[in-house]
Amino acid sequence: MMETKRSALFEKELAAPFTLPEEAVSFFTEHGYVKLKNVLSAEILQHYGDIITDLVFKLNKLDKPMADRTTYEKAFLQVMNLWREDEEAKAFVFSARLAKIAADLLQVKTVRLYHDQALYKESSGGITPWHADQFYWPLSSPKTVTVWIPLQKTSMEMGPLAFAEKSHEVEIGRDLEISDESEAIMAQQLGQFHINEEPFDLGEVSFHTGWLFHRAGPNTSGSARKVMTMIYMDADQVVTQPKNSYQQADWEAWLASKEVGTSPDSELNPVLYSYHH
User: Fold this and answer.
1) What is the count of structural domains for the chain?
2) DSSP 243
3) One MF term in GO for this entry (predicted)?
């Protein structure tokens, strides 16, 4: 009984609106990301963090030793669409509190889920090279945003997310997958941008737009860096012809192969927040 009561309380907190600081929307629009403190309580992060961690270890298919992995594989264990695996994970992913922030930052009325993913950078996990997420997505509009939720306080040693401020405004590197090459090319190009690479407090989350370049350092902390993410898209998105093999795979996996030129509104992409109540 206690557990049910606790879950109900947590779900209430996950639905409660978060008041954005006054300058958050303009900062996000200009810089391509924003970090927000005290968005989720320690209790919520502990409760859902345990559930997400169990799912990651149950569903993860990467069991190669670190030495045998590619740069991408060394960066993190990656498990997608946990909302379809577990009701409690679904309650977290469907949080109206987080989805409303996404809608407000994008300045749109309605957001859908593109997909969720847990990103666990194991102890001794390597860098996540510079990249922009939307390279992978067959979507027409840049009105996309990812919330990055560390499930623990994230020190510099753990490899917090780092952002190349305003890099969503320029069309460099938009044809690069996450790789050693993207890291090298972007490291040269990104001298022109201010890099925000700061630790994350417990309860602090970031939101970054689809074309913003970001990376993360290696995890040298001795314990796993556990992160949950959800990708939101403006409900007015249109599915575009996949431009590369990754977009083809994403189109099939996360958009249920919705017809090109139509709205990405399959059962895989539910509305998570709307002002049209």
Assistant:
1) 1
2) -
3) 2-oxoglutarate-dependent dioxygenase activity
pLDDT-derived band of residue 271, with 50, 70 and 90 as boundaries?
A: very high
pTM over 0.85: yes
Could you give the CA distance from residue 242 to residue 251 in angstroms, rounded to a whole number? 7
Query: pLDDT tier at 73 (50, 70, 90 boundaries)?
Result: confident
Total residues found in the chain within this entry = 277
- pLDDT confidence of residue 277: 58
Q: Choose among 163, 155, 154, 159: nearest CA to 203.
A: 154
Q: Is residue 109 part of a domain?
A: yes
> Is there a contact between 162 and 178 (Cβ–Cβ < 8 Å)?
no
| 106 in any annotated domain | yes
**Domain that residue 171 falls in:** 2-256
Planar angle of CA 7, 227, 75, nearest 5 degrees? 155
Report the chain's mean pLDDT, rounded to a whole number.
94
Q: Which of 89, 116, 88 is nearest to 102 (CA)?
A: 116
Q: How far is CA 165 from CA 31, 153, 177, 187, in A?
A: 5, 23, 20, 14
Q: How far apart are CA 78 and CA 121, in angstroms?
A: 9
